[in-house]
Specification:
CATH architecture: Alpha-Beta Complex
CATH class: Alpha Beta
Mean pLDDT: 93
Oligomer: single chain
Shape: globular
Low-confidence stretches: none
Helix content: 25-40%
CATH topology: Maf protein
Order of helices and strands: EHEHHEHEEEEHH
Largest sheet: 7 strands, mixed
Number of strands: 7
Distance between the termini: 13 Å
Number of domains: 1
Length: 201
């Protein structure tokens, strides 16, 4: 069976790894933006994760012959009114990094007790081709923000996000454990089921 080309419309290597791993077993040839559209970028401006994912997917699907998967995700912290939300990756601008973002969250939550540190990771994925949306998928997971980073795995806010059922942060979980429960993992399982049928059609 020939492989269907799928563009992962992200430059985040952590996301590329997770998505490729989750879609293993499907007849796909997955490529990242840096592989096929180097230097082309899209400026996010949506008010929600779904708006951003939809806009990115449509933008890149017009530049690429094949399926295009765009994803937007982030952390919403109850005590911060849902921040950092769609600004998760650039929360500590200018010059945001994962470490700077984590430090800013901890500063903003200084003095907030554990019972009030509830948070959720949210993910929106949009699959498109030739400027047309094929599928929109969402995934969510609830947890809370720890008092300090823990763990060496994952990326982004994973060291801060404590998942009570497993009593670990996402950064303390093995990749396969995280993918079983994470917002992105939940969305990707839905996507994989859809693609298994769509590719055959």
């Amino acid at each position: 069976m020939s492989e269907t080309p799928l563009l992962l419309a992200t430059t985040n290597p952590g996301k590329v790894r997770e998505i490729r791993k989750a879609l293993e077993g499907l007849p796909l040839r997955t490529v990242g933006l840096r592989d096929v559209l180097p230097g082309l970028s899209f400026r996010e401006g949506g008010a929600s994760f779904l708006e951003n994912a939809r806009a990115k997917s449509l933008f890149y699907s017009r530049k690429w012959k094949g399926l295009t998967l765009a994803e937007d995700s982030g952390l919403e912290i109850d005590a911060l009114g849902g921040a950092p939300g769609v600004r998760s990756a650039r929360f500590s601008s200018p010059g945001p990094t994962d470490d700077k973002n984590i430090r800013k969250v901890l500063r903003r939550l200084a003095g907030v007790p554990g019972k009030d540190r509830g948070a959720g990771f949210c993910c929106a994925m949009v699959l498109a081709t030739d400027g047309r949306v094929i599928r929109e998928i969402r995934g969510r997971v609830r947890g809370r923000i720890g008092q300090a980073p823990r763990g060496q795995n994952g990326f982004g806010y994973d060291p801060l996000f404590f998942y009570p059922p497993l009593r670990k942060t996402f950064a303390e979980l093995r990749p396969e454990e995280k993918n079983e429960v994470s917002h992105r993992g939940r969305a990707l399982r839905k996507l994989k089921k859809f693609l298994a049928v769509h590719i055959k059609d």
